[in-house]
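ugh ok fine here u go
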Amino acid sequence: MSFLVIVESPSKAKTLKKYLGADYEILASYGHVRDLVPKTGAVDTDNQFAMKYQLIERNEKHVDAIVRAAKKADRILLATDPDREGEAIAWHLAEILREKKITPKKPIARIEFHEITQSAIQHAVDHPREIAMPLVDAQQARRVLDYLVGFNLSPLLWRKISPGLSAGRVQSPALRLIVERELEIEKFQAREYWTIHLDSHKGRQAFSARLVQYQGEKLDQFSIATGEAQQAVLDALTNAKTGNVTRVEKKRKSRSAAAPFTTSTLQQEAVRKLGMTTERAMRTAQQLYEGIDIGGGAVGLISYMRTDSVNLAREAIEDVRAYIGKNFAADYLPNAPVYFRNKSKNAQEAHEAIRPTAISRTPESVRKFLTIDQARLYEMIWKRTLACQMSPAQFDTVSLDIAVGGPANLFRATGQTLVFPGFIAVYQENQDDEESEEEAKLPVLSEGETVPVDRLSGEQHFTQPPPRYTEASLVKTLEEYGIGRPSTYASIISTLQDREYAVLDKKRFMPTPIGRLVNCFLTTHFTHYVDYDFTAKLEDRLDDVSNGTLKYIPLLDDFWQEFSGTLAAKADVERGCPIPDEPCPKCGARLFLQASKRGLFVGCSAYPGCDYTRPLHGGNEDGPTVLGQDPDSGQDILLLNGRYGWYVQIGATPEDKKLKPRRASWPKTLPAEHADLPTALKLLSLPREVGMHPDTQLPIIANIGRFGPYLQHDGKFKSLPKADDVYSIDLARALDVLAMAKEPRGGAPAGKPLGNHPEDGKPVTLHNGQYGWYVKHGKVNATLPKDADPAACTLEEALSLLAARAAKGPVTRKKPAAKTKAKPKTPARRTKAAA
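structure:
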């Protein structure tokens, strides 16, 4: 008997050929084969939402090949992806073959597998099924909803805002998230606050503590709100020479591994850890799923990558636990399997989590067959899967209070030490594997013990606005709100960028002016349809269709009855978006935010009777404002309003975009209407070099940033106290300010600079870590010999140690002593597989 197997992609077809015999011909549909006719009337809302389909032109030749092969085959197997989209493709293929009168004369069946392995394929072939019509109905309902919104709302945007715009059922709520975050940032006003720190030591070990109680009052974030207030505290404590330890609290804490990957968490980690886009991550995961030739033919390396599930199959868990038992000490393997509960708001389709198809297929064993992206993503999936079945990490934490200047003034110090790595030996969520789990180590202290007051200092801080969304945080928020589904996150993000509604600035989303206007129009006139809860509830109802508990026609009918009424009511709304509480100064009518070829502007709703207009942010509507002339070049100093706000510039913008005139952002704390030449010249003088640091021979730079004036040196930043002037601070004062800068909490100290590496010019530094002294260059660490004097370590000695360390290859870690008498085994960190 001859079989025709139809899959979605040619690479998947190639992999399946390895597992199926000569009786099986495998062809690819190259994705979807039919779609709604791209014009009005594709969905007949008066006739049970009947749909008019047409072949997708680019896939016509592939459909023809499938039809020819189907005529020759004895049986047809539809092996498209195991989700709504795959089920719909299978149904469309079956419909095409029925229209060609090939079926039902020839038997046709659906087969489903979640990984491309010999056992999974054979099981699918042995257990064919009917096409799951509830899944098909859910996909069609989703497609109809998208059509009804897009084909009816987009033309309204063309008429009321600008031609070529679009609105989408899911993309519009996502745009609203980005715009509302930007509005939060714009409304944010930074608040100043100060923290007071105690530097002390015991023996040779220094430590730091922070003031948490002053004069018997517990301090909150803004208790010390000004430089004057912090100075008053320091003055009150200035005579204190010692502190008394009043409390010591020690605890053992544990941290469990994260669940194996879902589509959403895979995308988030790929963005954070690997620097990929969500689209690139999904494309790479698709390649790993469909099969890679690793010698001897193509093999599917991971399970299906579109899933909400955090569950692993029993056989997969057994394989992972067996691998841990073979390659790790006994205490790395929990007594029982670890199970996870799905936290997704709208978890659907009972797939497995994303995992390797064989845990024994280590990243190192397949690396040479993979591209860089494939290797990095596979390693991350492999490590996460392994880690999820390992023992929790164990930490010793200590917290102590020190009274200074009396029992009413308490400083608190905290420390944390990793005592058993557990799953951290393999994988850490949300941070690079090279980063330390250590916090500042504290000396052993007891209640009643006295410690010296080496120094008391204040540190200035400013509250920060909520950050703009990254791809990772946007995906996380979409999932939390129930907007879209895992398979749609990447396309939502790419659509917003393709439509130029949002741009990535320093890997964070910023809405464009047209994106803000579209969002303003939709939230004003179609509030219900960009509401987060409405979008999520609609997804819930689509899930009900998938589960067979709801018919899709009533769902569509409910939506269309309300949506069509809203469309009719909004057909004659005025152009643009109304600006509340601001009447036209010329005639008193309402002002509207509108779009033109030159960008956004504010215009009067009484146009053409009233011709009042102004730029979006006020100012000179005829162009840039000339503040005066630059005394050095004689060119005009201009005040302009750009994509990211007001700025000043020397001279006109040249036609050659490669030539960049000198510019400086206008501080948001200064109203642009008060701009003058002296302030502009000061801003344009920045950044300025204060001088060279005598220890590092690196420049100290003074500048003004988003949160005020600061100093920059050797990649580190320190806010300038209010008493200092960024334009006049000298080298001596800059050195004093930098000396007050504290080492970052929660990480390794910056280290003593020994000099720069001769090959790349990057610094070589000396550190004191958990296991002793070591030198560091980039990501390479080299331990000092036990008999070496750290104080006498030179750059030449450090370079020699680093070269020897680099020659040994990837970093290895010693395992802690086993807590049982089990035969010692090597942790995965010591194997090439886990390196």
